[in-house]
Specification:
Blueprint lengths: L1 E7 L4 E7 L4 E8 L10 H16 L7 E6 L10 E2 L2 H9 L8 H14 L5 E5 L9 H4 L5 H7 L8 H15 L8 E6 L3 E7 L2 E5 L20 H9 L5 H10 L2 H6 L4 H9 L3 H24 L5 E5 H6 L1 H9 L10 H5 L6 E2 L8 E4 L4 H16 L9
Helix pairs in contact: 2-3, 10-11, 11-13
The structure holds adenosine monophosphate (AMP).
């Protein structure tokens, strides 16, 4: 099935056309600066996407469905869903939980409804894979009304990637997914780690928002919440200032001055103390999560690295694994530095836990889930008009 995959942000729209039967990518691109003079809104962005499709694929690009990456599915969405107006409104109603993302995702959906009203659309939620967390993992130890009245709980993100990588890792090990216990380290500019038991997510480091957990490119990950309340009570920072500081000025960037792992690794190799500290902090934080999740899953069969840093930075993988000796983890140094786009084992044969590198493919996973849902539902009709 030929699927247009859309990742619609507030000021950018990323797209790919995928052929799911042959697992090929026909084209990909991004429209930026939505909201500026040239591209006033998501409808105008979609006009540019259409022009690109026609230029590459001909007057009739042959699209059969659209799959959307939707960041927040709240408690309602544990699976991909076929989009209609009610679903679109539900995505918009979740805006308080993802103010930067969900409204933009819904704008993308509405723009497609206007442009190609007969094209079926599927929403694939970044939170959905984590709906299997047990309550003791997703509740915060705060008064109940914060959960019941405000939806304050752990949701987790990067679910599409974690699910896809789990499937690939199980395949590589020759285990059925339902027999796979492991730890998925999705290390990109945003980073999270997920505990997988019997193929399902049982804990994950991101929380109510994607700010929690690991030291990331520009995000702090976990900090003592009192730091924030103290700074606000003293009147030194506003909530907005702290929010942008923790999301945009922290992590590797806050400590080493750059959010690009390549630059931080290179600086550390040249003796830059701040870069060295940032790497040590990021690796140590991840090691602590891996230790904890090894316990959570009752003994992991595999630790899996994925996303920009996880797939490409042998230096960071080495640093992380060097601190996992107590778990019996031993890297094969040669295998670790090898460059490949294929899923592979990088641990030594006597390692107690296998270490894998598995390239993620969120767009491919969204296209596959979209095609699957449309086939399963036999639903090839346009959504009902409002
Ligand atoms: P992502 O968000 O998955 O695109 O990942 C972005 C992160 O991957 C950035 O921190 C990049 O510095 C990092 N990255 C990409 N390529 C490499 C590489 N060859 N070596 C080290 N880090 C890389």
């Amino acid at each position: 099935m030929r699927v247009l995959v859309i990742n619609s942000g507030s000021s950018s729209l990323k797209y790919q056309v995928r052929e799911t039967d042959s697992d090929t990518q026909l084209l990909s691109g991004v429209v930026e600066q939505i909201g500026s003079g040239d591209v006033p809104d998501h409808g105008a962005a979609l006009d540019l996407v259409e022009a690109a499709l026609v230029a590459e694929l001909g007057q009739d690009p042959g699209l059969e469905a659209v799959g959307h990456r939707v960041v927040h599915g709240g408690e309602r969405f544990a699976e991909p869903v076929l989009v209609n107006y009610e679903i679109t409104r539900a995505i918009e109603r979740l805006a308080p939980l993802a103010p930067l993302h969900n409204p933009a995702n819904a704008l993308g959906i509405r723009a497609i409804m206007r442009k190609w009203p007969s094209l079926p659309q599927v929403a694939v939620f970044d939170t959905a894979f984590h709906r299997t967390l047990p309550e003791h993992a997703w509740r915060y130890a705060v008064p109940n009304e914060l959960y019941t009245e405000h939806g304050v709980r752990r949701y987790g993100f990067h679910g599409t990637s974690a699910e896809y990588v789990t499937g690939r890792a199980a395949q590589l090990l020759g285990t059925p997914v339902r027999g796979f216990d492991g730890i998925i380290c999705h290390l990109g500019n945003g980073a999270s780690v997920t505990a997988i038991k019997a193929g399902r997510s049982v804990d994950t480091s991101m929380g109510y928002t994607p700010l929690a957990g690991l030291v990331m490119g520009t995000r702090s990950g976990d900090v003592d919440p009192s730091i924030l309340t103290q700074l606000m009570m003293r009147g030194e920072y506003t909530a907005q200032e702290l929010d942008s500081m923790l999301n945009q000025e922290s992590g590797l960037k806050g400590i080493a001055g750059s959010n690009d792992m390549r630059a931080v690794v290179a600086a550390a190799a040249e003796g830059d103390d701040e870069a060295e500290l940032a790497l040590a902090m990021a690796a140590y934080r991840l090691q602590k999560f891996i230790g904890g999740y090894h316990v959570a899953v009752g003994g992991a069969q595999a630790i899996v690295f994925t996303a920009g840093i996880g797939e490409n930075s042998w230096q960071f993988r080495e640093r992380v694994c060097e601190g996992l000796g107590a778990l019996g983890v031993r890297l094969d140094r040669m295998a670790n530095v090898e460059k490949s786009r294929e899923p592979r084992v990088i641990s030594a044969s006597d390692s107690a836990i296998k270490v894998l590198v598995v390239p993620t493919d969120e767009e491919g996973a969204i296209a596959d889930q979209t095609a699957q849902l449309i086939r399963d539902s036999g639903e090839q009709q346009a959504p009902e008009g409002e």
